[in-house]
Amino acid sequence: MRGLWDAVRLVPRLRRSSLLELPCQRLPVALLQHDTLYQRRSFTTGEDAGISRRQYISLYNYTPLDKKKLPKLRRDMREQWGDLGVVGRIYIAEEGINGQLVVPETAVNAFGHSFPRLLRDAKLFYGQLIEDKPRNTEEIKPAEPFHKLDIRIRDQILHDGFEGGPLDLQESGYSLPPELWHQKLQERNEMDDSSTLVLDVRNFYEHEIGRFDGATRIMVDTFRDTFDALDEILDQHEKEHDGQKPKEVMM
Known about the structure:
Strand content: 15-25%
Largest sheet: 5 strands, mixed
Distance between the termini: 18 Å
Protein name: Rhodanese domain-containing protein
CATH architecture of the domain at 52-133 and 142-153: 2-Layer Sandwich
Pfam families: UPF0176_N (PF17773)
Order of helices and strands: HEHEEHHEEHEHEHE
CATH class of the domain at 52-133 and 142-153: Alpha Beta
Structural class: alpha/beta
CATH topology of the domain at 52-133 and 142-153: Alpha-Beta Plaits
Number of strands: 8
Mean pLDDT: 75
């Protein structure tokens, strides 16, 4: 995709941090002792050691990491999370971390404290609590989503289809609370301000569920198709505004 100007940002604003230095923190003994039911689980086989329930967690964090230190970070994560019985798939890159994990319920607290600089500002989504054993004979034991801990170093934590090189994550836009977003959207629509471009960046299916008034629908099936669709929308906007780019972009 051709260069995005300052108004268009597809990643969240990041605070400059000291994440280029990312020493891991050994788990406090007291923290592990607090989880009295914790038992080690092999991260290579995923075999149980008496754990009754496990928590599904998905997470991501766009935060700058030192490319040269990614192999060491991977080793440290594998060691500590393997000791906790964590299984799943994690991608790490210069731009941050993205992963889907299953963590023993008794180790969730310890997991959250394992890499504070990496996980403190991460977006963690807690999904299903997985029962290892059926509660009665009529229930079927749930299928294992993961059988080992797989940590991979990638160029991107999300294959988004953008081929213009790495984005400067420090030059992102800013987030608006819902009430301010709706206020700005209402003002824009009332003034019929076509110089402010509102983009609804959800996919086709999500558009059918709901949409914003006055927004341009990108209309893609997958996120990786977004950038090509944006090129067409931006070209059309410039044609309709005598070659002028939007003064502001909301998305």
